[in-house]
Amino acid sequence: MDRLGEHVRNELGRFGPVEGALPAVVRAWPAAVGAENARQAWPARLSKDGTLHVNASNSVWAFQLGVLAPAILEKLRADLGEATPAALKFAPGPVPVAEAGSAEKPPEHRIAIAPEHRVEAAAIAAGIEDEELRELVARAAAASLAGAAPDPPADRRF
């Protein structure tokens, strides 16, 4: 199991830092941008140069939030301090759909995942030390084991 966790961490590391700032940014994001903006744009990845790439539900939201980037960075800086991203870059991309009554936490995929897939996925991710990364990998593995990759909503296909 240790090798799998390390392999996942290495692969994710190709797209930016795996541990450290991104989980903190995701936690701080809704408060920094507000509930409506958080429903329309969500942090996707942190590049090696410190730029936070944010997926927006469409190009209009990407543009509007790009105009607000300095104010968003200031709000993030108040919460994150030195862990604040160096810059923000908004582009259209997949954004989590919030469950009714929950503006903070994106839901798990809308697919039915059998309990045995969740157990197997938890075993696959068990060797990952970082709790948040372990949970994300377990959720992704459970969805994969269930044999489903959810289709993006019709209004978000590019």
Features:
158 residues; 3-stranded mixed sheet; GMP Synthetase, Chain A, domain 3; 2 domains; mainly alpha
Short description:
The chain contains 7 helices and 3 strands, in the order αααββααβαα. It has 158 residues and is mainly α. The protein folds into 2 domains: 90 residues, DnaA, N-terminal domain (GMP Synthetase, Chain A, domain 3), CATH 3.30.300.180; 42 residues, no CATH class.
Topology:
Blueprint: H1 2-13, H2 21-33, H3 35-40, E1 41-46, E2 51-56, H4 59-67, H5 69-80, E3 87-92, H6 115-125, H7 131-145
How would you describe the overall organization of this protein?
With 158 residues, this protein is mostly helical. The protein folds into 2 domains: 15-104, DnaA, N-terminal domain (GMP Synthetase, Chain A, domain 3), CATH 3.30.300.180; 108-149, no CATH class. 49% of the residues lie in helices and 11% in strands. The protein has helices spanning 2-13, 21-33, 35-40, 59-67, 69-80, 115-125, 131-145; strands at residues 41-46, 51-56, 87-92. A 3-stranded mixed beta sheet has the order 1-2-3. The longest helix is centred in the C-terminal third of the chain and has 15 residues, at 131-145. It starts with a helix and ends in a 13-residue tail after the last helix. The model is unreliable at 102-109 (pLDDT under 50).
